[in-house]
Amino acid sequence: MSFDFIKDKNKKVHFIGIGGISMSGLAEILIKNGYTISGSDMKSSHITNKLKEDGAQIYIGHNGDNIKDVELVVYTAAISPENPEYIRAKELNIPLMDRAEFLGDIMKGHKYNVAVSGTHGKTTTTSMLAHITLNEDVDPTILVGGELDAIGGNVLAGSSDYFITEACEYKASFLKFFPYIGTILNIDADHLDYYRDINHIKETFIKFINIIPKEGYLVANIDDKNVKAILHNHDYKCTILTYGLNDGMLKAKNVSYNALGCATFDAYKDGHMLFQISLNVPGQHNVLNALASIGTALILNFSKSSITSGLSSFRGTHRRFELKGTKNGVTVIDDYAHHPTEIKATLSAAKNYPHNKIFCVFQPHTYSRTLSLFEDFSDSFFNMDNLILADIYAAREKDTGVISSNMLGDRIREKHVNCVNLHSFDGIVDYLKINLKKGDMLLTMGAGDVVKIGEMYLK
After folding, report:
1. Catalytic residue among 136, 166, 169, 322
2. 367 by DSSP, 3-state: which?
3. SS3 416
4. What is the pTM of this model?
5. What DSSP assignment string belongs to 59-92?
6. Rounded to the nearest 10 degrees, how much is the dihedral formed by the CA atoms of 114, 118, 120, 124?
7. 3-state DSSP assignment of residue 250
């Protein structure tokens, strides 16, 4: 498929799985550029409702009959070849593109493509860059893997050469992109249902760096041991800007934290003080995310005021240490953390936030991840006041009985953490009503639907 095909606005494009955060963003970009769009998903949501309001034809449920007068079908990595719409498109010889390839083709129409990669922090860093570019007033196109108030959702369709997107490593999909600037925030063991091991993951990130052109740039976290390893052992054609708290060309110095755990720091490049940054999102990990966005903005020659004001105005995306509300003196916060490294970073931020005791409700995400990182998960909740484990959120997987939330709970209890397993959201909310006291924090964590527990408690 060529970009010439994509830019033909007379073509009708159908999205299988249009309700997904990335797929819906791509559909919105096409709608706002005058394309005719249809799409299907297993259930309706506020995302599919918005697409419908914007003019898309939305089908609930997957059915071959949904493929009507379509010239191109786009599908997600979660769609199997047995999907009836996929099969129907094949029968009718309609061109098919996976989401990453389609996004890559759209990127071809822009000069300043920024692809934010890494195992953790992509959504937050992309959102920080969104705030900076909005302050710079360059009319960017932005795709975020979450919902950001500043752009009214997960996508902003601009008309300039600036294109900012997350670049997910799952199934090596980011290798289909065309970055002018690539960022690597960190490299960790994840998606082990696809990757063999950490070496396979590192090899894929090396390939990602190699798709950046000679005139392009890589912004990389040199504090991360796996990022450092792939930088030191290979030669690359692009220009590399490293950053970190301990090392790198771009550094954060004189870091201090306020009562809510949000950092103020001085940004230094090549030993020279640039400016002071004050963040309104908590945690040391967000200092690193800010450095990645600063490095990218400096390459793009954005102004000092756009960088400092943009980062100061950023107060997080939905589901990233999001304050959901308070009830009876209890603070309710929700976070998307679903990997051991993310859990530790979120709990570290939570402990710096005002509270008496933390009641953490964690919903493991996918059986394969829970099994492959079992010991790492069991070590993630050290010194936690109260941990409640919900059942594993299956997502695209089936329960084979090999792993369960109860097994994880047993292992965590062996490590003397106060942990209980509860198997329904109603049961968890009843437990919280009995045990939460004024001044406590309720922290819900996971990439599934665990956010509903905090919302149920607040109601």
Report:
1. 166
2. helix
3. coil
4. 0.85
5. EES--GGG--S-SEEEE-TT--TT-HHHHHHHHT
6. -10
7. strand
The 3-state DSSP class for residue 199 equals: helix
Return the structure tokens found at 459: 């109601």
- What pLDDT was estimated at residue 383? 83
Other C-beta atoms closer than 10 Å to the C-beta of 305 total 11
The number of C-alpha atoms within 13 Å of 124 and in the hemisphere containing its C-beta is: 30
d(CA 408, CA 371): 9
- Which amino acid makes up residue 383? N
Residue 166 falls in the annotated catalytic set = yes
Q: Is 237 a catalytic residue?
A: no
Measured torsion, CA atoms of residues 48, 52, 54, 55, in degrees rounded to the nearest 10:
140
Contact 321, 281 (CB under 8 A): yes
Place of tokens 């950046």: 212
Both ends of the chain: CA-CA distance in Å?
49
Number of other residues whose CB lies within 10 A of the CB of residue 163: 26
pLDDT of residue 314 exceeding 90, the answer is yes
> Could you tell me if 21 and 51 are in contact, meaning their C-beta atoms sit under 8 angstroms apart?
no
Residue with tokens 């999001």: 322
d(C-alpha 256, C-alpha 278), whole Å: 10
Closest CA to 279 of 356, 352, 188: 352
Helices 99-107 + 21-32 axis angle, to 10: 40
Q: Which domains does the chain have, with CATH numbers?
A: 9-98 (3.40.50.720), 108-313 (3.40.1190.10), 322-458 (3.90.190.20)
pLDDT average, residue stretch 382-395: 94
Catalytic annotation, pick one of 123, 125, 133, 366:
123
At 252, the amino acid letter reads A
The average pLDDT across 121-129 equals 96
Continuous segment of H or E residues that includes residue 198: helix 198-210
In the predicted model, what is the mean pLDDT of the chain? Answer: 93
Give 25's pLDDT tier (boundaries 50, 70, 90): very high
pLDDT above 80 for 6: no
Which residue in the list 36, 122, 136, 228 is annotated as catalytic? Answer: 122
Give Cα 92 distance to the centre of its chain: 35
Told to judge if 123 belongs to the known catalytic residues of this protein, a careful annotator would answer: yes
**What phi and psi values does residue 253 have, to the nearest 5 degrees?**
-125, 160
* Spatial strand order in the sheet of 72-75: 57-60, 36-41, 12-16, 72-75, 96-98
Tokens of 155: 């996508």
Distance of alpha carbon 64 from alpha carbon 199, whole angstroms: 40
